[in-house]
Write a structure and sequence with these properties.
This protein has 209 residues and is mainly alpha-helical. It has 5 helices and 4 strands; from the N terminus they run ααββαβααβ.
Length: 209
Amino acid sequence: MGPPKIEVPSPKNFLQKRSKEPKLPHRKRDEGRKRLLTIPSVPHVTDHPLMGIQSKKNFINTNAADVIMGVAKKPQPICVDTRQGHKYLLETSGLVPKYINKKDYGLTPKYVIKRSEEVKRAQEEYDAYVKETLRQKAMKRLSDEERESLLQGLKKNWEEVHHEFQGLSVDIDTLPKKIRKERLEAQMKQLEHDISIIEKHKIIYIANK
């Protein structure tokens, strides 16, 4: 019971100024010596600079000779288009006919000629490919023997289909029977159409595949 017993801090351990600031690491002596060696030394008191050095060159005569012997700078031609004196360079104004005086003026550039030749060569190759394709797929005329053989084959097929059609039952009451009858009728109709065309035309051409 009673107040708690706590140790009271000593008055000698008071908070000092800048005691909580971070301390930098101690610098080594060798680092300072190396830095001093790289810096040039200060001249001694007894050292005297070189005095009395004079050039024998005559700058006045040299400058005069340069001006006399030098090439005068040509003024740039300008053009004034207003009374207030607005001026601009004549060369970049487009008024000087410098492009028509070129050697290659009016000539087709080389890259255009090269491109035209490439296009022409590609077109020739494509035309040759088309001709070869058409030649391979050219129309072929059937001989009389082939025409007669083809006609007899179609008639034989029609007889076979017609015989199968005659064998169908009279009562078509189911879906499969109806589908089969329609299929046979379509085949007979197509065969009759082909036979009629071949009998009508004596000369027949077919395409090669």
